Amino acid sequence: MQEINGVNSWQIGAVKITRIVEMETVGGSRFILPDATRDACKPIDWMQPHFMDEQGNLIMSIHALVVDTGEHRILVDTCIGNDKERTMPTWSHLQTDFLQKLETAGYPRESIDYVLCTHLHVDHVGWNTMLVDGDWVPTFTNARYLFGETEWNYWDANEDESTYGTVIADSVRPVVDAGLVDLVATDHRLCREVALRSTPGHTPGHVSVKIESNGASALITGDCIHHPVQMTRTDWCSSADYDQSQGRRTREKLLSELADQNILVIGTHFATPTAGRVKALSKDSYWFDVAG
Questions:
Q1: Which candidate, 241, 281, 213, places its Cα nearest to that of 44?
Q2: Cβ atoms of 214 and 70 closer than 8 Å
Q3: What is the total count of domains within the chain?
Q4: The domain spanning residue 274 has which CATH number?
Q5: pLDDT by residue (tens digit) across 59-91?
Q6: Beta-sheet strand order (sheet of 114-116)
Q7: Which structural domain, as residue segments, surrounds residue 233?
Q8: I need a labelling partner for 54 at 20 to 30 A (CA). Which of 114, 148, 193, 284 fits?
């Protein structure tokens, strides 16, 4: 891992992956992982100091990841976004410097070629659009937005504004209406180095992102694993899961394949340092060895 001006990046062969943080929080994860009480988490001591504080509060991050192949600049997930009215007060009407951070890292919004959403939840689509003169307009005007076809078809028919707010209306439909969206299969290959992997359960069409270059490999999880604690406690499911049983099966299968392999795992909500490798604790239990 390389860190410059607070921005983390990793090199996977010829591909550079850069993390752009919107927010990092302590203790706010209980509504997502209700089983992760402080008393239940404290004995899982490998999570300190990066993913849990001394009191047993989990630490989580909301960030985007730029996958730069040299030929393509791919922005994976777009956080919560500014000015959006949300039902969660801490996520509503944000005023962050996310776009400035992105540009400082070398990726002005006009330079992004693809926006790839692992799924269409509130904290993964927010910067798809920005508020200009009272209208929600596409942020990344030169990009094609890639949504899973299964994912989009579900939310198009089952939009629910009562949970988090007008997420689809203000952060997804405007880019669809602008003609910037390509609907793709859950095993879509974007380019030689980048392909999708179907990881359903959290949402019907949820995907993770595989990166392979010059013999090196990485996986961006999306929300099939919200927090590293779910590697040890694979039975702890997210309250936001569409199908918790399927989500658990997906998580356990993925972890069994990743365990003790030289594959860099980059968690979509994993706090700094965010990336590492899955190690086996026992037959069905794992821990996360952070990347140095």
A1: 281
A2: no
A3: 1
A4: 3.60.15.10
A5: 999 999 999 999 999 999 999 999 999 999 999
A6: 2-4, 7-12, 15-26, 59-68, 73-76, 114-116, 144-148, 181-184
A7: 2-290
A8: 284
